[in-house]
Design a protein that fits this description.
The complex is a heterodimer of chains A (248) and B (352). Chain A is of the alpha/beta class and 248 residues long. Chain A folds into two domains: 6-134, Rossmann fold (3-Layer(aba) Sandwich); 142-247, Beta Barrel (OB fold (Dihydrolipoamide Acetyltransferase, E2P)). Chain A has helices at 15-26, 40-50, 66-73, 89-94, 107-122, 130-139, 187-193, 238-247; strands at 6-11, 31-37, 54-58, 79-83, 99-102, 145-150, 153-158, 164-168, 171-176, 179-183, 199-203, 206-209, 213-220, 223-228, 233-236. Chain A has a five-stranded parallel β-sheet with strand order 2-1-3-4-5, sandwiched between helices. In chain A, strands 10-9-8-12-11 form a five-stranded antiparallel β-sheet. In chain A, helix 3 (66-73) crosses helix 6. The radius of gyration of chain A is 21 Å and the shape is elongated. Chain B is of the alpha+beta class. Chain B is built from eleven helices and seven strands. In chain B, the strands form two sheets. In chain B, strands 2-4-5-7-6 form a five-stranded mixed β-sheet. Chain B has a two-stranded antiparallel sheet with strand order 1-3. Chain B is rod-shaped, with a radius of gyration of 38 Å. The chains are: A alpha/beta (248), B alpha+beta (352). Chains A and B meet through helix 1 of A and helix 7 and helix 9 of B.
Chain lengths: 248, 352
């Protein structure tokens, strides 16, 4: 990052909407557009690779919407939302967005948002609060899909395709259709976002999709194993067995 | 028209009730002095039948002087007067009838016999007439309550129609916000394009407003409207949105205005907008005999969870068609792989 120049990424699936931001930015010296993205995947990739100072982000986009992009990027970059929908404004501020521009917006309003963003970057203020994003996520009911970032690549995992999740140190490992995906998240935080009638914590280290379970066997005194449809054997703790019995 | 005269069944019921009254009168007469029971019946039954018609007039009295809005004293006075008059009229008929019977059966003292039963007949007549009046008032009250019920039903129908009118495809305001934003972009980058977009948008809005007052329009006109709508959306989405519309010979069929609008709006906002490379929004209409079939298809993201509220437009289309055609119209919608498809079937009505 150079001393003066503010490096920005523009994310919007409509070329004309990106053109408006591009044009308005021309009037502001010291701003460099490092990438323009037409969808959420590209946005995650661009931010991962280019570490920009600011992102203009549309909400409604194919594949990943603006909030899902934030969930994946966390604190990496301050965000100004641009959208025609005013109903997301509250959510945007709850996830600590710098500003929220309602389309169509004026050059003056855009300038205010940009000054605010500069102040935040200069003040070394962090970008959106990941904790707040996750809380926002949890408030909107159980997740229907899990977003996993693997470097610049993004995996979207529908929850019904998850077999089980295993805790590995500070990560959680998703097992789905024979593949594994690592995500930087704690088991407790993940459990809070999933549907409790579908995923049950059978063990300190295991969260199981109950549709995958074939049977539970007594292994030794007070210890059981869950046998999945594909033959996988997972340990079941005493508390886990109580939770499981309640659900089945 | 008197409610009892209007329906044959009602009149028969009314007369048979009066025959019971006639039986009662015959018994009373037979209990009097030296009247044979057969003769009593001959006197009573025809007289009562005749009086039953006189008493029909009570209904008109009740109508002419509704209980609400008339003084109690006036009502009682009128009731008594009409009862006395009717009963007096009945006495005249009775006298003539008994004279005829007397002559025919050789009863010596027919006028004497009549004179003996005058108080009985008169009292009976007055009571019966008052009873008829009471029944008439009851009938009137019943009719009034039915009328009130009918009115409230009619009110409900009107309210439902108003609701349907409001269901009529309301243009999504976000469509306007996004279009205006596109125009804002075009003003500097492509001024002629901005002007074209303004004109398209103006034409679309004017046509939409004009259609608001219409009951039915030709399918061709409806398709022209959604084509214009999609042309505006094409400015936003560029090559991601492609459009294929065909109607064949179905263009002259009549449809409610803006019926397809919510479907293509959904096709764009819930379909094309969520597919990276976009695709084709295809609207195909065809006539097969007496049926008109319209199919709208668009690509969609099969991995995207369906969100609450996406069914509003479709539900509106459904309820409008049901209101117009009842069970003769059908709406089916569903997703297969990456295609969302809505099919409408309704009776093919030709424009004149």
């Amino acid at each position: 990052m150079t001393d003066e120049s503010l490096r920005v990424v523009i994310v919007d699936d409509e070329p004309l909407a990106r053109a408006v931001v591009r044009e308005y930015l021309k009037a502001h010296p010291g701003v460099e557009i490092v990438a323009e993205c037409g969808n959420g995947f590209d946005a995650v990739k661009a931010v991962s690779e280019l570490s920009p100072d600011l992102m203009f982000l549309d909400v409604q986009m194919p594949k990943l919407d603006g909030f899902e992009v934030l969930e994946l990027l966390g604190r990496q970059v301050p965000v100004i939302f641009t959208t025609a929908y005013d109903e997301y404004a509250l959510r945007a501020f709850e996830v600590h967005a710098v500003d929220y521009l309602l389309k169509p917006f004026s050059e003056q309003r855009f300038g205010e948002a940009l000054s605010r963003a500069r102040a935040r970057v200069l003040g070394q203020e962090a970008g959106p609060d990941l904790e707040a994003v996750v809380q926002d996520r949890a408030r909107r009911g159980p997740a229907e899909r899990v977003l996993i970032r693997d470097g610049a690549q993004v995996h979207v995992l529908p929850v019904q395709k998850i077999d089980y999740i295993e805790a590995q140190d500070d990560y959680v490992c998703f097992k789905s259709e024979g593949k594994q995906y690592l995500k930087d998240q704690t088991m407790g935080a993940l459990e809070a976002t999933l549907d409790p009638s579908r995923f049950v914590r059978i063990h300190r280290s295991y969260l199981l999709n109950i549709e995958r379970i074939a049977r539970v066997e007594l292994y030794a005194k007070d210890s059981r194993v869950a046998i999945l449809r594909d033959g996988t054997r997972l340990p079941v703790s005493r508390a886990g067995y109580a939770r499981l019995s309640k659900l089945l | 028209m008197h409610p009892l005269l209007a329906r044959r069944g009602h009149l028969a019921l009314y007369l048979s009730l009066w025959l019971l009254v006639g039986g009662l009168l015959a018994l009373l007469l037979a209990g009097q002095r030296d009247i044979a029971s057969g003769f009593a019946a001959l006197v009573a039954l025809p007289l009562v039948t005749a009086y039953s018609f006189v008493c029909l007039s009570a209904w008109y009295v009740a109508r002419g002087m509704p209980l609400a809005g008339s003084g109690a004293l006036r009502v009682v006075a009128t009731a008594l007067t009409t009862a006395v008059l009717s009963s007096a009229m009945w006495l005249v008929i009775a006298r003539a009838w008994i004279a005829i019977l007397g002559r025919h059966f050789g009863v010596a003292d027919a006028p004497g016999l009549f004179g003996g039963i005058i108080p009985l007949l008169f009292g009976f007549g007055v009571l019966l007439y008052l009873l008829s009046l009471a029944v008439s008032y009851l009938l009137a009250a019943f009719e009034a309550s039915q009328e009130a019920q009918r009115r409230s039903l009619q009110g409900q129908v009107l309210a439902r129609e108003a609701e349907l009118r409001s269901l009529r495809a309301q243009i999504d305001p976000h469509f306007l916000f996004n279009s205006l934003h596109s125009i804002s972009a075009l003003t500097s980058a492509d001024p002629p394009g901005a002007r074209r977009m303004c004109i398209l948008l103006g034409e679309f809005l004017r046509e939409t407003l004009a259609l608001g007052g219409e009951h039915r329009i030709t399918l061709a006109r409806e398709l022209a409207l959604i084509e214009r709508f999609l042309a505006i959306e094409r400015v936003r989405f560029g090559d991601r949105l492609r459009v294929e519309i065909s109607a064949g010979d179905a263009g002259s069929c009549l449809v409610p205005p803006l019926l397809l609008q919510p479907l293509v709006e959904n096709a764009v906002t819930h379909g094309i907008a969520h597919v990276l490379d976009g695709g084709i929004v295809r609207v195909t209409a065809e006539r097969s005999g007496a049926l008109l079939r319209i199919v709208a298809e668009n690509p969609c993201d099969p991995d995207r969870p369906r969100r609450a509220g996406t069914g509003v437009g479709l539900a509106n289309v459904r309820s409008r068609l049901r209101a117009l055609h009842g069970m003769d119209a059908a709406v089916s919608a569903g997703q297969q792989d990456a295609t969302w498809r809505v099919e409408l079937t309704m009776p093919a009505v030709e424009g004149t």
